[in-house]
Amino acid sequence: MSHPHTSHPRLLAWIDEVAALTTPDRIVWCDGSDDEWTTLTDALVESGALVRLDPEKKPNSFWARTDPSDVARVEERTFICSADEADAGPTNNWMDPAEMKSLMTELYRGSMRGRTMYVVPFCMGPLDADNPMFGVELTDSPYVVASMRIMTRMGAEVLSAMGDDADFVPCLHSIGAPLEPGQSDVAWPCNETKYISHFPETREIWSFGSGYGGNSLLGKKCYALRIASVAARDEGWLAEHMLIMKLTSPEGVVRYIAGAFPSACGKTNLAMLEPTLPGWKVETVGDDIAWMRFGEDGRLWATNPEFGLFGVAPGTDFHTNPNAMRTLAKGNSVFTNVALTDDGDIWWEGMGEPPAHLTDWKGQDWTPESEAPSSHPNSRFCTPIEQCPILADEYHDPRGVPIDAILFGGRRKTTIPLVTEARDWVHGVYLGATLSSETTAAAVGQVGVVRRDPMAMLPFIGYHAGDYFQHWIDMAKGASGDASKLPKVFYVNWFRRDEDGGFLWPGFGENSRVLKWVCERLDGKADARETAIGHVATPESLDLTGLDIDQAALEAVLRVDKDEWLAELPQVTEWFEKFGDKLPAVLWAELDALRARLADA
Ligand SMILES: O=C(O)CSc1cccnc1C(=O)O
Ligand SMILES: [Mn+2]
Q: Is the CB of residue 306 below 6 angstroms from any atom belonging to ligand 1?
């Protein structure tokens, strides 16, 4: 079969089928080149979808504004279409796969009319991995193509590596906004009907109607978490919503730490941390997704399958994340739903004193007297990870890095102490499975509501969460029977507040003090208080050198309040009951043991 771009029959057949259904005016095969990026972004600027920023401020960078109806992940429109509804579980929306495909086929029919269908071959993780994880996204959004070039290894090199028979995840995306001949386009075309659908058995992704973020950059949440978590269950590894950091002590001891925090709870900031403790060094491997497989040494090795950073903009500045700001200063980035300054740069809340005038994320005039924020709370920067000044060399290693500790963290005003070490692996899985956090703007819906967010994966588990918990329990078997090879598990909470609503802990670079305690626990050095909920740091065991924090706040942030934890028990019981007989019995046993320890406390 001769074709100018590929000899992959399944790929060609799929593309022909989709083109016949969606009827694009043309098909463009993306090669991932600089010329292609220039052509794409020039056209997006010409159409008004992008504004080129001043090259003196952010070279080769752009400002985008979405339709106000298309600003975040749409969890209520996200479906896991497993053959058996029971396999989707109680935390996912489900529709029969044949019914969903029939419904979406009619949505896709003619949806790309008047537009270009882009063929985006990509790879999640290094191309030289033992088993490269290929995907091909067909999309009618040039904004998505530009973003995928930043976020994934994308283009001709991938297509070549796929050869004529590589497995790949077909990712079909349409914004659902066909153009009639002569009809002018809008800056952010989308459709009020949105479906983000996953077909686990056939490892397919179909997305319709949204042009933004995790709804449309299908390599990220859809592939690298929801579909990959199903593959990981079947193949004995973990696809997790985690940062990966390399932490080096002043003595040169290196530890690798993975951290699971819900959306917009500071993973990017932690992954790029500038420690306040002298001599400690953080280097970044990843800020959002970790794939963890057992190495020959029986340890869990983690890789970051992404090629870029898609971070929350508001709150990011030189105090909270100087390395992110240094990454962005190098340009080659797309900023979405932030504000535009009059001199061609970007601005968002948290960047210090606002300019006298801005163009806000809705394209309106904004001044410091404006009531609404200039930038959407879920506004994002999209930037190449290789621009990160503290990117660890190991990022490029297809083996990844051996994980010493896993942090589970949430955003809780109360109850959860600053840092607790799990009693053992199963207790660590219990802490992850019962992780709770206040909701954020990363997903459409009310903000600030406490919900269970197991392993920070609630919106991303591609199958029954009860089976997911069991998979985590079973991972202990993979450590060649030696539990000491497994990462230690810790539960952190940077967000506890005092009675006046103020934060008890300064967070950001000061979190390096907690990381030091974690490392010293790994070395068997740091003290901890044995409590009903686990091994909790004591004020004396934390290195507080140079930190201005009063003793009352320190004791409050580390407190295990019996009544607060007793109040958690019925909430956890209600949470566990959702999973019926699929909830591992050992987790019920952990709850019973916690209840007994609290009774004795
Ligand atoms: O996809 C979006 O629109 C925001 S959600 C997101 C983006 C990057 C990294 N993580 C998330 C998340 O919700 O966890
Ligand atoms: Mn995330």
A: no
Decide whether any atom of ligand 1 lies within 6 Å of the 377 Cβ. no
Q: Of 67, 310, 447, which is best to mutate to test ligand 1, by the most ligand atoms within 8 angstroms of its C-beta?
A: 310
In angstroms, the CA 538 to CA 218 distance is 44
Q: What's the pLDDT at 545? A: 95
Q: What is the chain's percent helix, strand, coil content, to nearest 5?
A: 30, 20, 45
Annotated binding site for GTP: 264-269, 380, 411, 508-511
* Residue 262 Cβ < 6 Å to ligand 1: no
Catalytic-labelled residue, pool 81, 123, 222, 265: 265
Ligand 1 pocket, residue 382 CB under 6 Å: no
* d(CA 288, ligand 1 centre) in Å: 9
| Mean pLDDT score across all residues of the chain | 96
Name residues whose C-beta falls within 8 Å of residue 89's C-beta, 6 or more positions apart in sequence: 80, 461, 463, 464, 465, 466, 467, 468, 579, 582
3 state SS of 23: coil
Residue with tokens 């052509």: 39
Question: How far is Cα 95 from Cα 81, in angstroms, rounded to an integer?
Answer: 5
SS3 290: strand
CA-nearest of 198, 205, 199 to 138 is: 205
Q: How many angstroms separate the CA atoms of 510 and 572, rounded? A: 31
The burial of 55, by beta-carbon neighbours within 10 Å (0-12 exposed, 13-18 middle, 19 or more buried), is given as exposed
DSSP code for 18: H
CA distance 413 to 499: 10
Ligand number, closest to the Cα atom of 212:
1
Q: How far is the CA of 52 from the centre of ligand 1 (A)?
A: 24
Q: Pick from 458, 328, 439: which is nearest to 383 by CA?
A: 328
pLDDT at 301: 98
CA pair distance 214, 379, nearest whole angstrom: 13
Please tell me the predicted confidence (pLDDT) of residue 37. 98
The answer to whether residue 171 is catalytic is no
- Prediction pTM value: 0.97
**HSE (side-chain half, CA atoms, 13 Å) at 424:** 9
pLDDT of residue 379: 97
From atom 14 of ligand 1, which residue's Cα is the shortest distance away?
263
